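Late entry, written up from scratch paper. The run itself happened at the end of the previous shift, but nothing got recorded in the book at the time, so transcribing now.
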Amino acid sequence: MRLLRQARAASGLSIVEIVERARQRGYDLDPIGLTGLLEQPTLPGWQTVTGVLTACGLGGMQIDRWMRVYHDLGAPPPIAPATPPTAVQEFIDEKPVSVPPLVLTTAPATRPRLGNRHFALAAGVLVVLIMVPLLWFTLSNDEPDTVAADATSAAPRVSNPAPEPAPSPTDQPVAMPLPTETAVPTAPAPTTTRPPTRTTAPPPPPPPPSPADPGVLRSGVVALTGSGGFDLDSGQTAGEQDIYRINGDTLGRMNRGLLEPVSGAPSKQACQAERGWETHVGNLQVGQWLCVRTSDGRYGRLNVTAVGDTLKLAYTVWT
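Output as recorded:
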């Protein structure tokens, strides 16, 4: 009992705090009853002893030592064999039980101090915060610019000197021809233009349309950013635009143009037979096909190749 009271005093907890902590660990103790038990000369039940020691902060191995001694002290003495009445009983000089010290040894709570480990962790976090944006900026600058039709900018942005289609006479972003469908050259409008500065010789003009597609007026790829639009009849961003980008996955029509999502790559006859035209189409996915009718009454088809900040469309316009 002296060691139990010493463990309770070393914890620095009041009776109420001990009862509350013991309750959180599954021991049902009563404050008034516990006060009386701690004043008696003999140990209470082992559930009470375990609850008090656990609430005072003793670990599993320390409580195991307590329980071993507790059960050794509580074991009944062995029953001596019956002896004849005339036998003389000899007194046995038994040595007292040696109880190892079971005092709670808990160090006083100290405030954690910052060490080399904390500074190393902070430095690692700082390096990550600096390197991730720098890496993203480097990777984004390494990507080649695509031909973008932006309503807020009139001049094209050319950052890759690789071979590309011939520059448009109006100095606007041009439509790149598809690998399987070539564009029919058209007579440029007589306007005064300033050709973009080139570091290499311009590529040769695109070949004439193949005999397999004699009814194709033009085809190519257009990249729309912001709220940029595109004139499918002329293949330019200027003029009477037919389509424009509403957001990253929504395309709208302009100037009497019409849109209609379809399944699979449609033909000219399939688009001419459409009746449920839409003014805008949302939730576009990569690979989706659309029929389109231009402001000049021509029919064509669009294939979504990219969505997001840049909405890319492969287009074909029939005569």
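The mean pLDDT is 75.
(Scratch paper discarded after transcription.)
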